Amino acid sequence: MFKEMEKKEILVIGTNPGIIQTIVRLINNNELWNGTGVLSADDAVNAFENNPFDVVLFGGGLLDDEEKELSIIFRAIKADIPLVKHYGGGSGLLSCEIYQALGV
Question: What is the model's pTM?
Fold first, then answer.
């Protein structure tokens, strides 16, 4: 008997709307994942404070200081949240990054 798996909530942060839209679409192609994309650090904090995310995926365009500050904020709210830097490379790499973050 298989145990029903909970859908994992994934926050995607970046600055390019087209790329974020594509990443979220690829995430949502997996029936066990739900992606939410945001385009700024402020929107990321707001989304994280109001939703139970399981993984945070940093896309391109954020400054190093923004990414570090967001990491501190996210870990203060949820200490064990996996934070993943997504470097591009297509849906195969994206899936591997998420599976690794989830410990699957």
Answer: 0.90
